[in-house]
Design brief:
single chain; alpha+beta; tt1808, chain A; 2 domains; 11 strands
């Protein structure tokens, strides 16, 4: 019996319910680095609702891939111009054919060779991902590539060792042995905890400035209680 295209589609499982099938990360260093990348960008873009961040999540990009169980999942990926909502995995054909705009792989002894070769070729030739970075939390190897006329060209660092990301509108660089985001003027993008501490420090500075001004005015004989 010959099945129509619709009948074949009806036989497929609900792709939106596909679970991620990624292995555990190599070490606690890798977990901490991944959490840092996610939390800092989520905080910076906290008022935006047009992006999705995937962390150690499988990308399903073809039905043949499902049959072959040839699963590929970046450690970190960003898709822009999409709905910000929870997902169990990223299913390309359920997301208007969208692939990641940016991918970051965290190198480890067991994955580095694949990340530098097989995955780089996949992201370049199949995903057409605009920017691809890799970073090793162990030895701090850091590289970046941008898609230029269908091929990845290295992204050179600036004088501060930072590599620009056109996708993010930010720079990526190493600080305290961690891969971090930096603003175009070179300022570190903080974690939510760092941002809270900065706000607290700023509030304390403002309080001290107000107290000094009040003391100066009283020394000049100004009765502040009557103002």
């Amino acid at each position: 019996m010959t099945l129509t295209a619709q009948q074949l589609a009806d036989l497929m499982p609900d792709a939106t319910q596909l679970e991620s099938d990624e292995p555990e990360m190599e070490s606690s260093l890798h977990y901490l680095q991944l959490a840092l990348l996610v939390s800092c960008l989520e905080w910076l873009w906290r008022d935006r609702h047009d992006f999705f961040i995937g962390a150690n999540m499988t990308i399903y990009y073809s039905r043949q891939q499902l049959k072959n169980r040839d699963f590929r999942g970046p450690d970190f990926f960003l898709v822009k111009d999409t709905q910000k909502r929870p997902r169990k995995s990223w299913v390309v054909w359920e997301e208007d054919g969208k692939y990641p705009d940016l991918i970051i792989e965290l190198l480890s002894d067991s994955t580095a060779n694949v990340d530098r070769t097989v995955k780089k070729d996949l992201y370049q030739n199949r995903f057409r991902t605009q920017e691809y970075f890799w970073f090793s939390p162990d030895d701090l190897e850091f590289a970046g590539f941008r898609l230029v006329q269908g091929h990845y060209e290295p992204i050179p660092p600036n004088s501060e060792g930072l590599r620009p990301s056109e996708v993010l509108g930010l720079y990526l660089g190493i600080k305290d042995e961690k891969l971090r985001y930096f603003t175009p003027d070179g300022q570190l993008v903080p974690t939510p905890e760092e941002a809270a501490l900065q706000a607290q420090a700023l509030a304390e500075q403002e309080k001290q400035r107000a107290e000094r001004l009040e003391a100066q005015l009283r020394a000049l004989g100004v009765n502040l209680d009557e103002i």
